[in-house]
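Sanity check record (used in CI):
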Amino acid sequence: MASVPSHRVALAGVVWLALCTGCATTSKSDYIVPGTTDLRISQVDLRGVEQVSESELRDGLATREDPGWRAAVPWLPLIGAERQYFNQFSWQRDRERIETFYQRRGYFGASIVSESIIENPQESTISVRVTIDEGEPTRIERIELEGLDASSELSRDALLKELPLNQGAIFTQDDYLTTRDALGRRLREAGYAYAAVSGRAFVDPESQKADVFFFIDAGPRSRFGEVHIFGLEDVEERYVREAITLEPGERYDPQRLNETQEDVYELGVFGLVTVLPAHEAREFTLEEADDRDRLEDLLEESNIPDDSDPQAGVDARPRPGVDAAIAPGDDGAANREDASQSSETSEDSPRERALGVSTLLESAQLEAERRSRLDPEVPVVVRLKEAKKYNLRVGAGLAVESARQDVRGLLNWSARNFLGGLRRLDHFNAAGYAWAPGLIPSADLVNRGAILSSELRFSQPQFIERRTNLRLIASVERDVREGFSVWNPALRVGLDRPIFRKLRLEASYNVAYYNYFNVEESLVDVSTTTLGLDFQTEFLLEYLEQSLILDMRNDVLDPTSGALVALTVQEAGGFAVGGEFDFIKPVLSAEGYVPFDLLGRSVLAMRTRLGSVYNIGRDTGVPIQNRLYSGGTDGMRSFGRQRLSLYTPSGEAVPVGGLTQFEWSVEPRVRLVPNLFSIGDVWGAIFVDAATILRGQLEFDTAANDQGTVSFSQLAPSLLYGLGTGVWWNTPVGPVRLDFAYTLSDTSQDPRFRRCADPSTQGTEACVFVPQDDDAIQELLVGYGFYLSIGHSF
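Expected output for POTRA domain-containing protein:
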C-alpha cells in the first residue's frame, strides 16, 4: 500500500479544519431558528398520562428538558448532548403531536385541557406543564372483508386469525396497517403473488366506535417463472444459478424467495442480495443502465403495469362531514379535521358512510379486473451487489479475565472470490503480551510472556456438489496460560453441508502439534498421575470431529426466540500421521429462547450442556486441552475462565479439567430502555448458573480408563450454583454486555477444590484437608466474576 507524505496529511487536515470551522461559524452565528428563545427548558411536566407510554410520548416531542451537565461535553459520544432552549413554534407543533399520538393509539377524543408555561428570569429557564384528558378509547364495532372468492381455499376466519385487529379491541392505526399488510402477506403465502389489500376505517369519536373495511384482490393463483439475475461483475453467473433451487412452474411461495436469498448470500461474495417477484423489483434501483433496460423489458413482456405493486391500495380519502377514515398510506396526521367533525355528523352519516364504502369497492373492483389479466407465471428478479473484494483491518485488543490478562495488536485481511470460483481467503493475526493468572496474582504462580496467533482460512463453496462447502484452516499459536506456555501449530480440513433448511452437518480432520514450556512442576510431578494426565511436554494430537447442528434461532448475535441444539463428537487416534492419544469426546448442548411479556418486552433464555471424555486406547490418558472445564462467559460465570475444574494435587494450583461436565443456565431478559440515544435497546437480566466437573467417565467404563466412572444420579448432587445480573446495550457491533456473578455454593468443603495434606490421597476418603488459608486452590476461587464482552454467553 502506497504511503502518503506526512506533510500532505497535515496540510490536508489544516485545510479541512479551516473549512469546517468556517461552516460551523456561519451556521451558528448567522442563523437562528425562528421562535427560539434563550430560556433553557427546566421541566416538561405531562399530567393525566395513564393509558399510554409516557416515555414514548416524550420521545415524539421536539420540546425536551435540558440535559444539564451533559451539555458541557456535547462532543462526547453517547453521553454528550446539546442544550435545549424553548421554541414557541416547536411547542405549538408539539401540542398537535400529542393529540396525534393519542389518535394513533385509538384515543380520538384526547385533548389538552390546560397548559402553563412558567419563566424563571433569574435562572434563564422555563418550565412547561400540560394536563391531558385522554378520554375513552375507540373500539372496533365490526370488520368486513370484501372481494374474497368463495371458491378460494382461504376463509375469512383463517385470514383474520391471530391478527391485532379484532372486534371489540381498541382501534389503532398501527394495528389497522399491520392487519392490512398481514392480510396481503397471507394471500401471497397461499400462492397469490399479485395479492393486494385495500381498506378504510371509519371512526366516530363521539360513540367511540370504528368500522373497518378491507377489499381483497387476490389476483390469479401464481407460479414461479424464469429467474433473472442482475448486478454481476466478477462472479460468474453459473455459480449463482447453482445456489438457486427455484424451478419454473413451481407453486409461488414467498418463503422460497427468502430461502433463495439466504442461499445466495451464504456464497460469501455479495454485500447485497434481494430476491423478489418482478412486479416488486421495480422499487429497487439498478446501478447499470443495461440492467435497468433489461428489467423494464422484462416487466413489459410480462404485462406488468407500473402501478401493479401488491401493496398499493385504493386511497379513498374521506370528505368533510363524513366519519374519519384512515386510508392506506396515511401517517396518522391526515384526516384529523374529519375526525373532529365526526361528532357533528348529521342523520345521513350512515348513508354517507355506505357511499364511502361503495366508492371504495367500486374502485377496487375495477382495479382487480384490470390486474386479473396479469400472467400467473411470475418472473423472479435476483439483484446482486458484489462485496468489496479485499479488506484490511488493523486494531488492538485487551482481554481481562480472573485467570489471565493480555494486550494485543490485530492485523486481519480477507479476499473474496479469491482466484474466482467463489473461493475466500482470510488471514487473522494477533500479537501481544499475556499474564496468567494475572498482573496481581492470587497465588505465587505468575506465567507471562509474548503471545502470537496466526490463522489462515480458505473456503470453497459448491465443493463436489452445490450444497457442500470445503474449509481449510492452518494456524500457529504461542499462548500463555496458568501453569504453562505452549506452541501449537494445527491444521483442520473440513466439509459442511445443510441437510435440511435448519439442520447442518459438519465433519473435519484435525491434526495439531503441542510443545509445552515454562511448565509448572506440579504438572509433571509423578503424583499428578492420579488425575490420569501423564503430562507430556511434547506430543502430536490427531482426531476426527463431527457436528450435527439444528439452528432455529431468529438471530445469531441476539436471539429472542427459537432454539439451537448441537451434538459434537471427537475421536482421537493415530489415523495418518501418528497421533498419540485415543479417546472419544461427545458433547451435547442446547439453547432455547421464549419471548413473553413481563414489564415490557422479555425473553426467557435457557441453556444446558452435557459432555464426557472416554479413554479408549493407549495409557497416555487425555491431554489437558481436550479435558472438560467450566467457568468464564461461556460457562459458570461466577468462576473465572476454566476455574471450575480439578486441580493438581501438589505444588501450585493449576486447573487440569475433568472427564465429565454438566451445565445449565436460566436467564430471564427484560428490555429496560428502548432505543437509547437512537442506537439500540438496553436490556437487563438476572441469571442462575449451575455446573459441575467430575473426574470419572460418564456411565461407561473402558479398558484404558483409570479415573473410574460417574452416573447420571451423581450429576445433580455435585452441581455448584451461582447467581448473577447483567446489563447490555444492543449496538451495531453487537450487544455490549456487563455481567456480575456470585457463587452461592460453599467450595471450602468440596474435596474437588481442597488440597490434601498427603497428595497421594487426593480424591479418596483418606484425604485430610490442609488449612484453608494455606490451600492454593482456595486462593484462586474468589467466589465472584466480572465480565465485559461483546455478545451474549448464549
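Residues 32-133 form a domain with the Ubiquitin-like (UB roll) fold (CATH 3.10.20.310). If this sentence no longer matches the regenerated C-alpha cells, the check is flagged for review.
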